[in-house]
Amino acid sequence: MLAAFFLISFLLAFAITPVVIRLYTKNKWLDDPEQNKHAKVTHSQPVPRGGGLVIYGAVVLSAVMLLPFDKHLIGILLGATLLTVVGTLDDIYDLNPKIRLATGLLAALIVVGSGIGIAYVTNPFGLGVIHLDQPRITFDFFGPHSIWVLSDILALFFILWNMNIVNWSKGVDGQMPGFVAIALAFIGLLALRFVNDPAQLETAQLAFIASGAFAGFLLWNFYPQRIMAGYGAGSLAGYFLAVLAILSGAKFATTVMVLAVPTADAVFTIARRIIAGKSPLWGDRGHLHHKLLDELGWGRKRIAVFYWLTSFSLGVLSLVLDTRGKILAIVAASGGVFAFLVWAKLHYLKRQRAV
Fold first, then answer.
1. Which of 68, 204, 298, 354 has the least CB density, counted as fewest CB within 10 Å?
2. Residue span of the structural domain in which 186 resides
3. Distance (Å, rounded) from C-alpha 351 to C-alpha 343?
C-alpha cells in the first residue's frame, strides 16, 4: 500500500522535472560557474536550479490526491509553500543567507503553530521519557490556546537545524536527494510501529510521498546533473525530515543517526568557521564532500553513493538499536567524520606549504 504513495510521487517528480528545466533554461535562470566564482561551486557547466519546485509540486499534488487534510497537514504544506517561494527567488536572485534563515524560522513557526511539537524525548540515561509539556502559557484567542514553551522551542530548533544541515550537503550531483529519499523512507517505516494509530499511518504515507519525490528528482540530478537542487529542495529536504520525524515519534536519536554524516559535517563546519572568525552562514569549500573531492580525488558519483550507503546502513541500525545504541552509533560515525575532516585540513595546509 505504501509503495503506491511512493510510486505516485516518484512519477510526478520525474514528470515535473523536465518542465522545470525547460522553464529555467528558457528564462536563463542558470547557475553558471563562469559567473558564480564561489569556492564551494563544484559543477563546470551552466545548470538550472529549481529543485524546490519539483519537490513541492510532487508532494503537494500527491498529498491532495491521497491524504485527508487536517490542521497538521495544512500547516506542513503552508510552511513548504513559503520555503518553495523563497527557494525559487533564491534560484533567480541569490538571496542573502540571513533572509533564508529568517524565512526558514517562519516556516518552522507555521508548523509549530499548527500544533506540531516535541512533547517528550526518550531518557538516554535511564528508563522512561523526559516530558517537555511544562511550562505552559495559556491564553484565550477565539477559544482557549496553550503554548508548551520547551516543546515548541525544541521543535523550532530541530526543524531549523535540519533544514540547514541537509541543505549544506548537496554539493555534488545526486548527493542530497539520494540520502534524503532513504532517510524519509526509514522515518516512514518507524512510523509504522504504531500502524494502529491513524495519525501515524498518515505520517508514514506522507513520509513515503516525500521520499518518492526526492527519488524521482534524483534521476535528473544524478551525474551528470541536468538540474540542481537549489536552496528550495535543500531546505524542503531538512524541513520534511524534521517535521515527519517529530510526527513519527522518531525525534532526535533516530533522525540524527540516519543523518549522522551530514550532521557531523555541519557541526565541524560551524565550529571551524567560528574559530576562523567567519560567519557560519556563508559557504566555503570546507564541507566533507569538498574534501572527498579535493583531498581524496573521489568522483561525484562515488561521493553521492557514499552518502546514500551511510544513510542506508545507519537507517537499518536505527530499526534495531535502542536509544543508547543509537547514541553510540552517532558518536562513532561523527568521530569518523571529524577525524577525516581534521586530517583533510592538515593535508591541505601541508600541500599549501609545499607550493
1. 354
2. 2-251
3. 12
Please, what is the end-to-end C-alpha distance for the chain in angstroms? 59
Contact 287, 171 (CB under 8 A): yes
Dihedral pair phi/psi, residue 70, rounded to 5°: -140, 180
SS3 label, residue 113? helix
Instruction: Chunk the chain into consecutive blocks of 10 residues (it has 355) and report each block's average pLDDT, rounded to whole numbers.
Output: 94 98 96 73 84 98 96 96 98 94 97 89 73 76 69 94 94 96 94 72 94 98 96 97 88 84 94 89 88 94 97 92 87 95 90 76
Q: Cα–Cα distance between 284 and 6 in angstroms, integer?
A: 35
Domain count, the chain: 1
Is residue 274, in this structure, part of any structural domain at all? no
**Which residues are paired to 145 by β-bridges?**
139
Could you list the beta-strand ranges (E) of the chain: 30-31, 47-48, 120-122, 129-131, 136-140, 144-148
Q: What residues pair up with 132 in beta bridges, in sequence order?
A: none
Q: Is residue 127 part of a domain?
A: yes
Could you give the 3-state DSSP secondary structure of residue 13? helix
Looking at residue 140, what is its pLDDT? 60
Query: Per the omega criterion (within 30 degrees of 0), is the bond before 135 cis?
Result: yes
State which amino acid sits at residue 49: R
C-alpha cell recorded at residue 105: 524560522
What's the rounded Cα separation, in Å, for the pair 101 and 227? 24
Residue 51 maps to a domain:
yes
pLDDT at 352: 80
In whole angstroms, give the CA distance from residue 86 to residue 31. Answer: 17
Which three cell numbers, joined as nine digits, stand for 251?
525525534
The type of residue at 140 is D
Could you tell me if residue 293 is inside a domain? Answer: no
Distance in angstroms (rounded) separating the CA atoms of residues 133 and 111: 17
State the helix-helix crossing angle for 230-248 and 149-168, rounded to 10 degrees.
140
For residue 82, the one-letter residue type is L
Q: Which three cell numbers stand for residue 33?
A: 560557474
Which pLDDT belongs to residue 327?
87
Q: Quick check: helix, strand or coil at residue 144?
A: strand
Say if CB 232 and CB 160 are below 8 A apart. no
Q: Under a CB-based contact definition with an 8 Å cutoff, are residues 29 and 92 in contact?
A: yes
